[in-house]
Amino acid sequence: MRVLGIDPGLTRCGLGVVEGSIGRPLALVDVSVVRTSAQLAVPERLVTIERGIDARLDEYQPDAVAIERIFARSDVSTIMGTAQAAGIAMVCAARRGLPVALHTPSEVKAAVSGNGRADKAQVGAMVARILRLDAAPKPADAADALALAITHIWRGGSQARIDAALAAAGRKAR
Amino acid sequence: MRVLGIDPGLTRCGLGVVEGSIGRPLALVDVSVVRTSAQLAVPERLVTIERGIDARLDEYQPDAVAIERIFARSDVSTIMGTAQAAGIAMVCAARRGLPVALHTPSEVKAAVSGNGRADKAQVGAMVARILRLDAAPKPADAADALALAITHIWRGGSQARIDAALAAAGRKAR
């Protein structure tokens, strides 16, 4: 499966495309960051982000989109822009009928590093190792977007196996 | 001028279209509320809101869009959805090149009622009086959307007159 991971933000929005499946090596397809100037009005900035996401969806045709789940308790000065960028990302995916999953930062950190409190350097290093890159993707928003896509493939896969196991158990019980 | 006022919200998004200019009676063009079920996923709800806003923009071709400015200090349980609905509204307008203005709730209350702390009933009653309606529009989201459009016409007009006066003063000074 191919997943577009999105680390939403008004100033930098990380977009990472990863392909693969559980138990097999994952591959980096594309990684980029949409940047918008704080000198532009917010509506213009959001449209730039929308265009950037749409361009990746057009080009890479992912099977699903994984977006970082935003909490209202995050930094108040940036929370509104981050929430709005995340909303735009959801709409871009949902308009195409693509499944959207939200993963919390600690879920992502735990998935890629085994530690829900890993720092940015650890996440970057693990993303590089998992995707067999020479170095951690820069900036951190790019690495975080790839980590979201990796998390989605791994968690989605294990969830599918759990569902299949439960369905099988249900059939046996009948 | 014709203005679409948007009171953003995930459960109820008020949309009010008002036409008129400073010093002349304003007219109600349309008012409606886009509702989305909490049982749907957020991406689907945001797409429904996007479609509702796009439909009004297509049908009524406003000259500007006025959206309630959201503050991070609002109710935490609804702030994310409200911020995302506001972001979608901004994108719908900016994609068409329409000017977008954000007005705070107290600016809107002050503009329509003369009191920045007016309650919902007072705002609804003043909207009805200004637009010569038989009763306050229901629900409150509908009245608030109309109040936003009224505020935009009145404030925009006075701002334009201030700009014109300053430009004239500048010409005299030269």
UniProtKB/TrEMBL annotation, chains A, B:
Enzyme Commission no: 3.1.21.10
The keyword Magnesium belongs to this UniProt entry's keyword annotation: yes
Main localization, broad class: cytoplasm
Pfam family, any one: RuvC
Keyword Cytoplasm set for record: yes
Cross-referenced PROSITE patterns: RUVC (PS01321)
Reported cofactor(s): Mg(2+)
Annotated catalytic residues: 7, 68, 141
Enzyme class: hydrolase
Gene Ontology CC terms: cytoplasm; Holliday junction resolvase complex
GO biological process: DNA recombination; DNA repair
Binding site for Mg(2+) 2: 68
Biological role: The RuvA-RuvB-RuvC complex processes Holliday junction (HJ) DNA during genetic recombination and DNA repair. Endonuclease that resolves HJ intermediates. Cleaves cruciform DNA by making single-stranded nicks across the HJ at symmetrical positions within the homologous arms, yielding a 5'-phosphate and a 3'-hydroxyl group; requires a central core of homology in the junction. The consensus cleavage sequence is 5'-(A/T)TT(C/G)-3'. Cleavage occurs on the 3'-side of the TT dinucleotide at the point of strand exchange.
Protein name from the UniProt record: Crossover junction endodeoxyribonuclease RuvC
Native species: Nocardioides kongjuensis
Gene from which this protein is expressed: ruvC
